[in-house]
Automatic annotation (TrEMBL), chain A:
<comment type="function">
    <text>NDH-1 shuttles electrons from NADH, via FMN and iron-sulfur (Fe-S) centers, to quinones in the respiratory chain. The immediate electron acceptor for the enzyme in this species is believed to be a menaquinone. Couples the redox reaction to proton translocation (for every two electrons transferred, four hydrogen ions are translocated across the cytoplasmic membrane), and thus conserves the redox energy in a proton gradient.</text>
</comment>
<feature type="transmembrane region" description="Helical">
    <location>
        <begin position="59"/>
        <end position="81"/>
    </location>
</feature>
<feature type="transmembrane region" description="Helical">
    <location>
        <begin position="6"/>
        <end position="21"/>
    </location>
</feature>
<dbReference type="Pfam" id="PF00420">
    <property type="entry name" value="Oxidored_q2"/>
</dbReference>
<keyword id="KW-0874">Quinone</keyword>
<feature type="transmembrane region" description="Helical">
    <location>
        <begin position="26"/>
        <end position="47"/>
    </location>
</feature>
<keyword id="KW-1003">Cell membrane</keyword>
<comment type="subunit">
    <text>NDH-1 is composed of 14 different subunits. Subunits NuoA, H, J, K, L, M, N constitute the membrane sector of the complex.</text>
</comment>
<keyword id="KW-0812">Transmembrane</keyword>
TrEMBL record, chain B:
<feature type="domain" description="NADH:quinone oxidoreductase/Mrp antiporter transmembrane">
    <location>
        <begin position="162"/>
        <end position="465"/>
    </location>
</feature>
<feature type="transmembrane region" description="Helical">
    <location>
        <begin position="442"/>
        <end position="470"/>
    </location>
</feature>
<keyword id="KW-0813">Transport</keyword>
<keyword id="KW-1278">Translocase</keyword>
<keyword id="KW-0812">Transmembrane</keyword>
<keyword id="KW-0874">Quinone</keyword>
<feature type="transmembrane region" description="Helical">
    <location>
        <begin position="14"/>
        <end position="33"/>
    </location>
</feature>
<keyword id="KW-1133">Transmembrane helix</keyword>
<feature type="transmembrane region" description="Helical">
    <location>
        <begin position="416"/>
        <end position="436"/>
    </location>
</feature>
Length: 97, 530
């Protein structure tokens, strides 16, 4: 049981570090998805531990939400890429101070 | 494993939610089938009718709700205990719907920019290309913004009423996703707008990841997503307390990001500056109301028994938000960024109220509960903010809105009415007596004092003085500085924006002079049902 939670924590941390260090918006976004999937693993593992279905059902909802997020996110990244010919989060730096 | 039980749906109590959701879906259908020429009229009419219908529903439900379990709180649980339709929910629903009606009026404004709305003609075209010029020449408009906004309103209503972690997460996402898109749809300065959408989206998705992992850990701790069950587990101290503490921390990251508290405020100035002004007006007011509702329900209902763990954290975050927000606002040269940092400072003031006494039976005579104080503050803040941003959309030059503060010099001579109204909103945000902001601040400070959080209140009073300086500085620029070059010009708004500003200013004055009725209403809202 603990192994699954530890694995999900590791995945979540990898995603988190990825968001903070990667520079390509698509890769940053993939790291966010990794975080959501780490959550799913934790939900399912805890559902098994507690012997109820809440966590498993939540995992389905999270998948749907993640899919919706992909639609919105890729649309926004696409418009930025078409305007700037770059998906780097460092290039999008007009707004500051 | 338990048997699956079909939840009963309380259609009457959920009518406001269902009306807004139905109108959002209807908007999508209109967008798909109605000819382009009638879409604007159809969308605005449908959106306004839906919101008004939902608002009437809120009043009817509020008159009807009974005391829950013979306690002080009134309300019912709907859809198998996942949504709590109680006093605070209904108050927040009413407030969000009123702000959304003002938001629709601002969205529909077409007078300011030569007969077209503030949204991109065709968002898919690349800025500076022939396709964009053609779309502008054809006077294209994105009427999709109305259904998107309705979905956001639906999320704003679901988020504070959610009574389990899953519903709260879904509400959070339904509220956020349309706002990410709306931020990127400005007609002018599209690069800034798209950049703000990208930043808002990436940071928002990041923070909702934290929220979700926190939810997973709390579920692991309590074995249930339901707030009452989590509270029961905390009371009986069932599991590993590290799961509870880490879970609480991660959940707060998600929620504090949404309310824009320091240290999760980084997105606020960028999004407020880049996004179209009507969107900012609606989002700044609505998101804060909804997210504070959700934050209080989570902390009071689910984690109330564990308050000694989270209160010190909120103390520090409240103090940081007030000072960092006020200090950084002083250094800004853009009016929308300044209002963004001022909203960060206001988040700190509202958090001060969240630290107050929760239960009315623990109060001395004349003291008010934290919920009453915060709900009142949110009302004052919401209308002052939406009004202030509506005024920002009026001050323009040839390139669209002029948001640089130095370009506002001489506004007092150019348009005394607009300058006076804006100065009034700023004074309300500073908390000067006879404005709603003063009563709001008084309410949250006394609520926090009643709970013994006097260090936070002292800090809040000091931060108010710093903040007052920055608002007065803008007023000085408007009235006493010599205009640079041609000076600002004020676009003449249609009745839509004018109504919004007038109602915002009137409420800000009325709530400052006779705050009693709304304070009583917030008091009648009572407590969360548990």
């Amino acid at each position: 049981m603990t192994q699954y939670i530890v694995l999900s924590a590791i995945l979540f941390t990898i995603g988190c570090v990825g968001v903070l260090t990667r520079r390509n918006a698509i890769v940053v976004f993939m790291c966010v998805e990794l975080m959501l999937n780490a959550c799913n693993l934790a939900f399912v593992a805890f559902a098994k531990q507690h012997g109820n279905l809440d966590g498993q059902i939540t995992a389905f909802f999270v998948m749907v939400v993640a899919a919706a997020e992909v639609v919105i996110g890729l649309a926004i990244i696409m418009t930025i890429f078409r305007t700037r010919r770059s998906a780097s989060v460092d290039d999008a730096s007009l707004l500051k101070y | 494993m338990t048997e699956f039980v079909k939840p009963s749906i309380q259609y009457f109590e959920l009518w406001p939610l269902l009306a807004v959701f139905g109108v959002a879906c209807l908007g999508v259908v209109i967008e798909a089938f109605a000819p382009r020429a009638v879409r604007y009229t159809a969308q605005v009419t449908v959106a306004l009718l839906g919101l008004v219908g939902a608002l009437v529903g809120v009043v009817l439900v509020a008159r009807d709700v009974q005391s829950y379990d013979d306690g002080a709180a009134r309300g019912v649980f709907a859809v198998g205990g996942t949504i709590a339709v109680d006093g605070p929910s209904l108050f927040i629903w009413g407030l969000v719907l009123s702000l959304a009606i003002a938001g629709v009026l601002l969205f529909a404004e077409r007078h300011l920019d030569g007969g077209v709305s503030a949204f991109a003609g065709q968002a898919a075209t690349v800025p500076g290309t022939d396709a964009e010029t053609a779309a502008i020449a054809a006077r294209r408009e994105h009427t999709e913004v109305y259904p998107l906004m309705m979905f956001a309103v639906f999320g704003m209503m679901l988020f504070p009423a959610a009574n389990d972690l899953l519903t709260m997460f879904v509400g959070l996402e339904v509220l956020s996703l349309p706002l990410y898109l709306l931020s990127g749809l400005a007609r002018r300065r599209r690069l800034l707008s798209q950049e703000s959408a990208l930043k808002y989206f990436l940071l928002g998705a990041f923070s909702s990841g934290f929220f979700l992992y926190g939810a997973a850990l709390l579920y692991g701790y309590a074995g249930s997503m339901d707030f009452a069950a989590i509270n029961e587990a905390v009371r009986n101290d069932v599991g590993s307390s590290s799961l509870l503490l880490i879970g609480t921390g991660l959940l707060s990251v998600g929620l504090l990001f949404k309310v824009g508290a320091v240290p999760f405020q980084a997105w606020t100035p960028d999004v407020y500056q880049g996004a179209p002004t009507p969107v900012v007006a609606f989002m700044a007011a609505g998101t804060k109301v909804a997210a504070f509702g959700a934050l209080m329900r989570l902390f009071y209902v689910a984690l109330g028994a564990d308050r000694w763990s989270w209160q010190p954290m909120l103390w520090i975050i409240a103090i940081l938000s007030m000072f960092v927000g006020a200090a950084l606002a002083i250094t800004q040269s853009d009016i929308k960024r300044l209002l963004a940092y001022s909203s960060v400072a206001h988040t700190g003031f509202i958090l001060t109220g969240v630290l107050g006494v929760q239960a009315s039976d623990q109060l001395a005579v004349g003291e008010i509960t934290s919920l009453q104080a915060v709900l009142f503050y949110l009302t004052t803040y919401g209308f002052a903010t939406i009004g202030a941003f509506a005024v920002v959309s009026l001050v323009r030059d040839s390139g669209g809105e002029t948001t640089a503060i130095e370009r506002w010099a001489g506004l007092g001579k150019e348009s005394p009415v607009v300058a006076a109204v804006f100065a009034f909103f700023l004074l309300a945000m500073a908390g000067i007596p006879l404005t709603s902001g003063f009563v709001g601040k008084l309410a949250v400070f006394s609520a926090a004092l009643a709970a013994g959080a006097w260090p936070v209140v002292v800090a809040a009073v000091l931060a108010s003085i710093v903040a007052a300086f920055l608002y007065v500085r803008v007023i000085k620029v408007m009235y006493f500085d010599e205009p640079v070059g041609a000076g600002p010009s004020v676009a003449y708004p249609s009745v839509l924006t004018a109504t919004t500003i007038a109602v915002g200013a009137a409420l800000t004055l009325v709530l400052g002079v006779i705050p009693g009725p709304v304070l009583d209403l917030a008091g009648v809202a009572g407590e969360f049902i548990r």
